[in-house]
Design goal:
Blueprint (H helix, E strand, L loop, with lengths): L17 H21 L6 H8 L3 H7 L2
Helix pairs in contact: 1-2
Length: 64
Amino acid sequence: MAKKVDPIPGMHRQPKQARSRERVNKILDVAEEMFIAEGCNAVTTNAIAAKAEVPIGSLYQFFP
């Protein structure tokens, strides 16, 4: 039986599979590090995707 996941507010769609949850968590961790280090105005979605080593479409799939 699949483990229930608490919804993350503001997401386009909630990850259901473990692999998707891991990808979302990696994106969030990288984004947080970059926002702290570089500031919110300096960080781009392309930079987050590159540093998280995920396709840019993954960001747009889950986040507005």
